[in-house]
Amino acid sequence: MAWFDHQGCTLHYTEYGHGTPLILIHGLGSSSQDWELQVPVLSRHYRLIVVDVRGHGRSDKPRERYSIPGFSADLIALIDHLDLPPAHVAGLSMGGMIAFQLAVDAPGLVRSLCIVNSAPEVKVRSVNDHWQWAKRWTLARVLSLSSIGKALAERLFPKPQQADLRRKMAERWATNDKRAYLASFDAIVGWSVQERLSRIACPTLVISADHDYTPVAQKEIYVKLLPDARLVVIEDSRHATPLDQPDAFNTTLLDFLKTVDTTTRITDPC
């Protein structure tokens, strides 16, 4: 475990393994703990850096407004702190949004992107969009984090054999700082880099669960806007794909990274 300071906030990260850096970014209300089924596998091949986003996990939870560009700035500061070469970057849900933001803010820092069950924007446009977000906004403020965690765990891990995942998620969700959770929730709504996707030249893998919150068709639309991207759908999975289908996820990500590394070595004149 290690910490570094950025803009008055102490941020936590953990490193494993050696080689080309690979940064993992968790989602809203999650933490670096939720990559536990990836760490033993990925760290055999890469210098794995697993972060706790501002307001989450062991990182500080300053009483201020949060933003996706702000989370990206924290990540840039970490990359500078560790003096990393261009890194592979993978993000789940809100972590995918932060990865998108990083790729448009500082493309020279990113060797490749892996976007998991995420999107390049969260815009509220239709009447139904406004209703759905208003409902989520209200419930997030009225319900306890314990209640939210239990409800989400039931939705994400509904199978009888997933009881341990349900329990673990509910317990971890309840440890969130509610003010930081709400500030992170608010940071998502209205955010977008969709119009800047053509600037992302690095190889990009978009992973979608077949039963994610948003349909595969929505990912197909934005994948076409990326210069060098492909979509992989993982079956029998919901929003937390790295946890409910770890073997398929790990294999898919490793195959992509190895292809990127091999291609880069072949085409690099150095």
In short:
The protein has helices at residues 39-42, 68-82, 94-105, 127-142, 145-156, 163-174, 178-188, 216-223, 241-244, 246-267; strands spanning 2-6, 9-16, 21-25, 47-51, 87-92, 110-116, 204-209, 229-234. The protein is of the alpha/beta class.
Q: Key terms for this structure?
A:
8 strands; alpha/beta; globular; 270 residues; 8-stranded mixed β-sheet; disordered C terminus; Rossmann fold; single chain; 10 helices
Describe the structure.
It is a single chain. By secondary structure, the protein is of the alpha/beta class. It has one domain (2-122, 192-267): Alpha/Beta hydrolase fold, catalytic domain (Rossmann fold). Helices cover 43% and strands 18% of the residues. The protein contains ten helices and eight strands. It has helices at residues 39-42, 68-82, 94-105, 127-142, 145-156, 163-174, 178-188, 216-223, 241-244, 246-267; strands spanning 2-6, 9-16, 21-25, 47-51, 87-92, 110-116, 204-209, 229-234. The chain has an eight-stranded mixed sheet, sandwiched between helices. It starts with a strand and ends with a helix. Residues 266-270 have low confidence and may be disordered. This is Alpha/beta fold hydrolase. InterPro entries: AB_hydrolase_1, AB_hydrolase_fold, AB_hydrolase_sf. Keywords: Hydrolase.
How does the SSE layout of this entry go?
Elements: E1 2-6, E2 9-16, E3 21-25, H1 39-42, E4 47-51, H2 68-82, E5 87-92, H3 94-105, E6 110-116, H4 127-142, H5 145-156, H6 163-174, H7 178-188, E7 204-209, H8 216-223, E8 229-234, H9 241-244, H10 246-267
Parallel strand pairs: 3-4, 3-5, 5-6, 6-7, 7-8
Antiparallel strand pairs: 1-2, 2-4
Helix pairs in contact: 2-3, 5-6
